[in-house]
Amino acid sequence: MTHDRVILGIDPGTIVMGYGIIGIVGNKPKLEAMGVLQLNKLEDHYLRLGKIFERVTGLIDQYHPGELAIEAPFFGKNVQSMLKLGRAQGAAISAALNRNIPIFEYAPLKIKMSITGNGSASKEQVAGMLQRLFHIPDENMLPQMDATDGLAVAVCHYFQMNSPVTEKKYSGWKDYINKNPGRAKNND
Prior knowledge:
By secondary structure, the protein is of the alpha/beta class. The protein is built from six helices and six strands.
């Protein structure tokens, strides 16, 4: 089936990364895939980042998304956990930028709000709404909520597509540098 567009959603993590892929035909979303990348067997944090980059690149090559939607790191009390989460997000973003795919970033509250109408919804509530939206049989629901979290990011982006307010978007490395001049140093 040919899709008008394909959206890859990522819930970044250094232990488990969730992803969801939806295809849009006309104006209707269709679930293409969802899953998780388990990283807990790898002791080295940098190897985990490499696996995230590889898996996201593989998903891009397999499904050919036109956009990547990713959950933004949230502020937490544990600075080390937040740093690791930001690195995981960076590895996924790098894979998309490497394939010139635009990136859209959404806060956890915005994702939950767009799926359930409640910014403080539980992971179970988000998963339940997505299960109903896509008519996913119980036996096809993964035990890790990270998969439905990744799918939620893609669906959130789908819902926001016609919104006049957009999140941060980068169409490639040059665009990122142009929009963040203080973050990148040009060594030409």
